[in-house]
């Protein structure tokens, strides 16, 4: 009897792990259907963004494709209810220290953007990405998908990294509103 119970429990766990994320509303509930783009579409969108930026930000496009696109999507639209869009983001296009802090230390908690609520968690990338990589990817995002904010420099990233070096947890929206 014990082995049958163990088998049923293992089979149930395997089913949930393999299929759980694909069961609509089981783990993640979407307000709108997410739109995922294949490699050919991503390449076209990346090439379009690079052409718009004069091709000067290939490094930023590469970092974005490798690290950010899985959550924020290659078109910058995010995943409804989980990851907010970067296209048209006031937070991204405003004071550059805010997106720098988010990339360095992560973000967590509820936010509302464009009338939609998001409650995901963004990992901290400060231990993985160099100041040059962060500046490049933020410059790419701030100049893609209709965004038109000034570039972010490695010096700006370095300054924010030094000012926040003792931080050990992700930012909340309320904390980001506080000046450095």
- Distance between the first and last residues' Cα: 61 Å
Q: What share of residues is helical? A: 40-55%
Q: Number of helix segments? A: 8
Strand content: 5-15%
Quaternary structure of the protein: single chain
Low-confidence stretches: 13-56
Class per helix and strand makeup: mainly alpha
Fold topology:
Elements: H1 2-19, H2 39-52, H3 58-72, H4 90-93, H5 97-105, E1 107-108, E2 111-113, E3 116-118, E4 121-122, H6 131-142, H7 154-163, H8 173-176
Antiparallel strand pairs: 1-4, 2-3
Helix pairs in contact: 3-6, 5-7, 6-7
Describe this structure in words.
The protein has 180 residues and is mainly alpha-helical. It has two domains: 1-30; 35-176, Cytochrome c-like domain (Cytochrome Bc1 Complex, Chain D, domain 2, Orthogonal Bundle). The protein is built from eight helices and four strands; from the N terminus they run αααααββββααα. It has helices spanning 2-19, 39-52, 58-72, 90-93, 97-105, 131-142, 154-163, 173-176, and strands spanning 107-108, 111-113, 116-118, 121-122. It has a two-stranded antiparallel sheet. Strand 2 (111-113) and strand 3 form a beta hairpin. Helix 3 (58-72) packs across helix 6, helix 5 packs across helix 7 and helix 6 (131-142) crosses helix 7 (154-163). It is globular and about 55 Å long. Mean pLDDT is 79; it is low at 13-56.
